[in-house]
Amino acid sequence: MGTTQLESVAEPKYWHLRTVLSEALDSEFSVGEILPNERDLAARFGVARATLRQALEQLELEGRLQRRRGVGTTVAPPRVGVAVGTEQHIWPGASGDAWQLSDSTFEVPSAAVAAALETGQDEPVHIVRRSRMTHGQPVAAELLHVPASSVPDLSAIDAPSGAARARAVLRELHRLDLEGQDSAVELGSARADDAKQLDRLPGAPVLVVTTRYFARSRTAALSVATYRADTCRLTFGDSGAVEIHEDPERRAS
Amino acid sequence: MGTTQLESVAEPKYWHLRTVLSEALDSEFSVGEILPNERDLAARFGVARATLRQALEQLELEGRLQRRRGVGTTVAPPRVGVAVGTEQHIWPGASGDAWQLSDSTFEVPSAAVAAALETGQDEPVHIVRRSRMTHGQPVAAELLHVPASSVPDLSAIDAPSGAARARAVLRELHRLDLEGQDSAVELGSARADDAKQLDRLPGAPVLVVTTRYFARSRTAALSVATYRADTCRLTFGDSGAVEIHEDPERRAS
DNA sequence: CAGTGGTCTAGACCACCGT
DNA sequence: CGGTGGTCTAGACCACTGA
User: Fold this and answer.
1) What are phi and psi of B237, to 5 degrees?
2) How far, in Å, CA of B16 to CA of B13, rounded?
3) Please, what sign has the CA dihedral across residues A84, A85, A90, A91?
4) Residue A116 pLDDT more than 60?
5) What is the predicted pLDDT for the residue at B140?
6) CB pair distance less than 8 Å for A111 and B58
């Protein structure tokens, strides 16, 4: 990775560095390999550590690198394709999906969620917490909001929380006929609780997927799921296995 | 915005600052309003400018702020919902869509695109460049790759490039029966050319939407579209108008 | 031109990990 | 404990905008 001349174009150093490093990753490193530490790299390229870090941040955002405090910087594997929307609509928690139930409570949601569910401002709803794993790594944390009116027979359950309660909420929800669903994706940053679940630091970039489930001509449930933006590629549509990467010959370690 | 005690939790300053500023934006600012400049803000909160900037970066990533060099930092309007996937599949460029044709060429695509299209490694394809506007703002730049085999009758056209050529490619493409499509969304950073089209700096966060269009049991076209992550919320499904925001009473200026 | 955000530096200390 | 990435500082200069 010889230092090409900086040219006259006034390209920022960190951007040029990103390009150089990106090409070096393609040609001289394999997945899982540990890079030299930041102080050494900065010295090698003749820049301040902050500048080098700016380049690394870009590459991490693009899913090329993985950095862990106290450990080091490693070459990331290609992003995992995660199916989040399919042609045939199904209820969350239907048999065989990739989610793991963790908890459920009955509480007043944020104003935004209440508005989407068309429930009263201070009306509590069931909140099911789930997490999604792929290849042994946590990739998503979800809050599924279910208004009491969608699961009228749940009152028999008296467990205040826990996975068993979560199962009960989903079981009751599945009794409704799902008429449709729609989703929206936007960029966000992980709040402290999500970050912990996703094994990231607070503020880490996440893809927020908001899904509305319709039944009986109403919004019967609202899911807000945060996916790790560095490791995930969200897929919609018939076949979830799109494989687009600039460097197809990268191999698993 | 009294400084709550820093507690023992060792929350980073920039994260605490982000929270404080976020609440201030909700309660004390309206959309379009200009914030004090970074040096003043940093002094007011008693932190270095770099730390203040880290907090602003977070808020910009979340779509709460908009920063422009030489101008200042303003409060951003709520994100625009942009429909990128619908129940009924349609060809790109069908009448009435929000895209604007800009150019078309015939050249060898990147290896990744060639692999997805199942064309030969050095086989040229038609590349149609389009951009998408919403509310007078550019929100997306797209490269639509069409293998020559999908538009066999195009050879009559001899214009080497230009919008007229782009129209011709799409017209020929529409003669095929669209059998299906699928999409993937992932986080990326804008390359120099995309950044210019999107009126952003290189490296700005973008949502990359890769869509495959199927016809005659093959991939007849491949679209790679980059959307501004700061201003867009991508919507999939029946109704594209999901409105989820933590602060519903924010008004346009 | 003055004022803004964008880049860059050379340090320092902290939180975390594995040994 | 030593080594890693994460945070923070106090400066400097540059690129761009608008008056």
Assistant:
1) 105, -170
2) 5
3) positive
4) yes
5) 94
6) no
Given a contact cutoff of 8 angstroms between Cβ atoms, the answer to whether A237 and B180 are in contact is yes
What is this structure's pTM? 0.88
**Homologous superfamily of B80-252 in CATH?**
Chorismate lyase-like (3.40.1410.10)
> CA–C1' distance B26–C11 (Å)?
37
Q: Position of tokens 């890769």? A: B210
Q: Are B240 and A182 in contact (CB under 8 A)?
A: yes
**pLDDT bracket for residue B161 (50, 70, 90):** confident
Per the CB < 8 A criterion, the answer to whether A221 and A181 are in contact is no
Residue ranges per structural domain of chain B: 8-75, 80-252
pLDDT given for residue A97 in this prediction:
78
Summarised one tens digit per residue, pLDDT across range A197-216 is: 898 988 999 999 999 999 99
Nearest to B52 by CA among B67, B63, B33, B71: B67
Q: How far is B36 from chain A (nearest CA, A)?
A: 24
Range list of β-strands (E), chain A: 65-68, 72-75, 80-85, 99-107, 125-134, 137-147, 180-189, 205-215, 218-228, 232-237
The string of DSSP codes covering B19-49 is HHHHHHHHHH--TTPBPPPHHHHHHHHTS-H
What's the pLDDT score for residue B27?
93
Q: A238 falls in which pLDDT band (50, 70, 90)? A: low
- Does the distance separating the beta carbons of B183 and A210 come in below 8 Å? no
- How many CB atoms sit inside 10 A of residue B67's CB? 18
Q: In whole angstroms, what is the distance from residue A100 CA to residue B22 CA?
A: 32
A203 contacts B18? CB cut-off 8 A: yes
Q: Which of A237, A228, A177, A168 is nearest to A203 (CA)?
A: A228
Closest CA to B211 of B182, B232, B185: B182
A65: Cα within 13 Å, side-chain hemisphere = 25
For chain B, first and last CA: distance in Å?
Answer: 24
- Say whether the CB atom of B39 is under 7 angstroms from strand D: no
Does residue B4 have a pLDDT over 70?
no
Q: What is the DSSP letter of A34?
A: B
CB A119 within 8 A of CB A125: yes
> Are the Cβ atoms of B238 and A15 closer than 8 angstroms?
no
Å from A154 to nearest chain B CA? 27
Strand C: protein residues, Cβ closer than 7 A: A 12-15, 46-51, 54, 68-71; B 10, 35, 37-40, 49-50, 53, 67-73, 201, 203
CATH class of A8-75: mainly alpha
Q: Which member of A112, A205, A244 has the closest CB to residue B244? A: A112
Q: Cβ distance A191 to A203 under 8 Å?
A: no
